[in-house]
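quick one, 295 residues, struct below
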Amino acid sequence: MSKKVAFIGLGNMGGPMAANLAKKGFAVTAFDLSEAALQNAKEAGCDTTSDPKEAVQGADFVVTMLPSGPIVELVMVKQGLLDAIPSTALIVDCSTVSPDDSRKIAKAASERGLHFIDAPVSGGTAAAAAGTLAFMCGGSAEDFERGKSVLEAMGVNIFHAGDHGAGSVAKVCNNMLLAIHMAGTAEALQMGINNGLDPKVLSEIMLKSSGCNWSLEKYNPVPGVMENVPASKGYQGGFMVNLMLKDLGLAMEAANSSKSSTPMGAMAQSLFSMYRNGGDDRGTMDFSSIIKLFE
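---
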């Protein structure tokens, strides 16, 4: 008998993640506020519902992929979803939230006799669609092992970072570095363009040189250099600037609470904020569009 998964949140990442669970044989009941997202999930083989409490009935796993910590807390605690989840289910929160938010939700779940892991993701929309995401997990070793059966249907690199909140710490560290190397990659490519270089040739050179990085290899910010990335789709359908700024804010909070020195992270936050403030629609564009700041 197929394991039942309730999937809450069908955005650019959550939609393809839910689709991969259905493709791998899980019985998925999906919830989102967007009718279009629900329709896409239905076409991908998921059952859908307009009530999250209905989605979790009889679930073996409850996977959440929501935009922020306050929204996770709103859905889980204030709107009472935790009270509707079966005691035998494992909650897997894949949202990118602060470590404190993860610990808060874990505590609220534990008080109700529920098991919880934070499992934020990395890899972007292409990896979400391909089922090749990386998951950074926080929680008990037992719950992590139990959650792997679901996570392995959506990703290929599954890490146990430590106790509750550790996955969220790893994620904000990762995304701070992502912002730094995307900004640097965009700056370098634009300088090459300004000096008469073909960005595709320059990218090939740097990919085989010491400047090679994930942004250059998987997510080139120059339109037309790489197929099937947001830069070649009008900077749509990827990881929004608004969400990157949210994650950089979480990174700065983590830095302040641990008295860590993060001047590069702070500079990246400043650059993305400056870029977003330069145009009305920039916050909803993919974060690789930061290259427009250097044009």
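Residues 169-294 form a domain with the N-(1-d-carboxylethyl)-l-norvaline Dehydrogenase; domain 2 fold (CATH 1.10.1040.10).
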